[in-house]
Amino acid sequence: MDLVYLYAVTGKGDETLKLVEKLKKIHEDQRMRGQLLALVFIGLGDLDSASDWVAYASQKESFVSWIRGEPVFEPVRKMRGSGNS
User: Fold this and answer.
1) Which segments in the chain show pLDDT lower than 70?
2) What does the pLDDT read at residue 55?
3) Rounded to an integer, what distance in angstroms lies between the CA atom of residue 56 and that of residue 68?
4) What are residue 74's phi and psi, to 5 degrees?
5) How many helices (H) and strands (E) does the chain have?
6) Residue pair 23/41 in contact by the 8 Å Cβ criterion
7) The 3-state secondary structure of 31-60, one letter per residue
8) Tell me, what DSSP letter sits at residue 8?
9) How far apart are CA 13 and CA 76, in angstroms?
10) Stretch (H or E) spanning 77
11) HSE (CB half, 13 Å, CA atoms) of 85?
12) Measured between alpha carbons, how far is 54 from 33 in angstroms, rounded to an integer?
């Protein structure tokens, strides 16, 4: 997952999206956590998709508290109307 994020933040958008599509095809039980995919979309600057993955994570997974305090998620928190949650 780190590689996908690094691709995202270094402008390798096409490679990033190809890897994201592969990750989405992995069976639900084996899929990487939604909050990590949200991080990739933040790296791409796609806050709408990042917000969708945060919502997915909060419904499907035990929502981890580090998302609430992690500064990189601040744009998504603001977009969702909760700057501190």
Assistant:
1) 1, 27-32, 60-66, 82-85
2) 83
3) 15
4) -55, -45
5) 6, 0
6) no
7) CCCHHHHHHHHHHHCCHHHHHHHHHHHHHH
8) H
9) 19
10) helix 74-79
11) 8
12) 10
Helix axis angle for 13-25 and 34-44, nearest 10°, is 160
Three-state SS for 68?
Answer: helix
Which of 36, 32, 4, 37 is closest to 19 using CA atoms? Answer: 4
User: Which tens digit of pLDDT belongs to each residue from 50-60?
Assistant: 988 888 877 76
Structure tokens at 6: 């690094």
- Quickly count: other Cβ atoms within 10 Å of residue 9's Cβ: 15
Residue type, 79: M
**Amino acid letter at 53?**
W
- Percent helix, strand and coil across the chain, each to the nearest 5: 75, 0, 25
Report domain extents, the chain.
2-79
